[in-house]
Amino acid sequence: MPRWKDTSAFGNRQRLVAFVTVAEAGSLAGAARLLGTDRSNLYYAIKQLERRVGTALFERHVPGMRLTPGMRLTPLGTIAVHHARKVLQEMDAANRAVARARETLGGSM
């Protein structure tokens, strides 16, 4: 039986959500508050993602940020976050379509 192998650069939905949220919040601390998690979880997710894509997606310690080190997208990160948002939107649309079809067709597991 073939095994599922995650060969995409982005990996899973959770990693994509972490990436997009850090990009939008501008810091690990801000993203952690929004997601209800801690900075170390997000740091690990971002490091995994950067390792998978083979490049830095953020510049760390952005000058001018107050209290907490900031994170700003690199040029490659800007391209990646654009596509990550699209992927998340498509995943959400697929989930909604399946839920509607299940209600209409009366299917359940």
Mean of residue pLDDT?
A: 85
Estimated share of beta-strand residues: 5-15%
Radius of gyration: 17 Å
Overall helicity: 55-70%
The main β sheet shows up as: 2 strands, antiparallel
Outline type: elongated
Report the end-to-end length measured between terminal Cα atoms: 23 Å
Number of H- or I-type helical stretches: 4
Order the strands across the largest sheet as they lie in space.
1-2
Global structural class: mainly alpha
Write out key terms for the chains shown:
109 residues, 2 strands, mainly alpha, two-stranded antiparallel ribbon
Walk me through what this model shows:
About 60% of the residues lie in helices and about 5% in strands. The longest helix is centred in the last third of the chain and has 31 residues, at about 75-105. Strands 1-2 form a two-stranded antiparallel ribbon. With about 110 residues, the chain is mainly alpha-helical. The mean pLDDT is about 85.
Explain the layout of strands and helices:
Blueprint: H1 13-25, H2 28-35, H3 39-53, E1 58-60, E2 71-73, H4 75-105
Antiparallel strand pairs: 1-2
Helix pairs in contact: 1-2, 1-3, 1-4, 2-3
Task: Briefly characterize the structure.
It is built from 4 helices and 2 strands; from the N terminus they run H-H-H-E-E-H. It is mainly alpha-helical and 109 residues long.
